[in-house]
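Dear all,

This email documents one entry for the complex benchmark we are building for the journal club exercise. For each entry we list the sequence lines for every component of the assembly. Then comes the predicted three-dimensional structure of the complex as a C-alpha cell string, followed by one or two observations. Please use this as the template for your own entries, and keep the labels exactly as they appear.
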Amino acid sequence: MNDFYLAVSAFLLVNILVGLVRILRGPTPPDRMLMAQMFGTTGVGILLLLSEAMGLPVLRDVALLFALLGALATVSFVRRYWPVEFAEEESKE
Amino acid sequence: MTALTWIFDGLLTAAMVYLAWSLLSERDLFKAVVLFIAFGLLMALAWVRLRAPDIALAEAAISAGLSGVLLLDAVGAIRSPNPVPEDTSSDSG
Amino acid sequence: MMFEEWISSALVCAGAFFYLAGTLGMLRFPDIYTRLHAVTKADNLGLGLLAAGLMLRAESWPAMIKLALIWMLALVTSATACYLVANNALRAGLPPVLGRYRSGSRP
C-alpha cells in the first residue's frame, strides 16, 4: 500500500518537473510567478502522500506551510515587483 | 528501499542539481529569483525525504518564503521603473 | 476495511489525474489568464480529491479535520493569488487571446 502512495507522489514530482518548463520558457513575468503557485499546490499533494507513505504525520504541518508560501510569494510579486498604476491603464488602451 | 524510492530520490536530486546550475547561470534576475523559490521548495522536499521534518519546515519558511519575498522586493527596487512587463529572454532554453 | 481502501485508492488516482490535467493546461494554454485557470482550479480540485482519499485512511478525527483544513487553506490562498495576478495583468495591458484559439496569436 505504501508503494502506491509513493508511486503517486513520484508522478506528482514528474508533474512539477514538467511544469518547470514554464518558468524557463514563460514569456512574461506573471507566467513565471505562476509556477511558484503550482509548486505550492503540487508540493502540498506530494507532502500529504509522503506523510501517509513514510508514516510521518508531522509532514502535514509542512504541507500547511507550503500552502501558505506559494500565495505569499505571489502576493509579494504582485505588490512589490509589478505595481501597476491606474493611470497606466488609460494610456495603454 | 524499493525501486520507487530510488526513482523518487533520483528525480528529486537530478532536478535540484539542474535547478541550482540554471539559477546560478541565469542572466535575468527575476527568472533567477523564481528559480530560487522553486529550488527552496524542492530542498524542503529533500529534507522531508531525509526524515527531517523540522528542518524541512525551517527550509520552506526561510528559503522559499522569507528569502524569496526579500529577493523579489530587491529585484523590484533595483530595476528600471517600468510597470509593464517586458518580453526579455523569451528565447532561452 | 477493504472497501474503504479501494475508495481511497480511486480518489487518489482521480486527484493525480486532475494534477496531470493542470500540468497539461499549464504547458498548452496560450496566455496568462487561461494558465491561471489551469493552475488555480484543476490543481486545487486534484488536491481536494487527494485529501479526501487520504482522509478515509486517517488515523483519527483531528487528522481528518486537519486534512480538510489544509485543502481549505489552499483554496483560499490560490483564489486570492489568482484574483491578484489576473487583475494586475489586465490593468497592465496584457492582452487576452480572444476568438478561436491560434497558437501565439494576439488580437
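Observations: The mean pLDDT of chain B is 83. Residues 27-78 of chain B form one domain.
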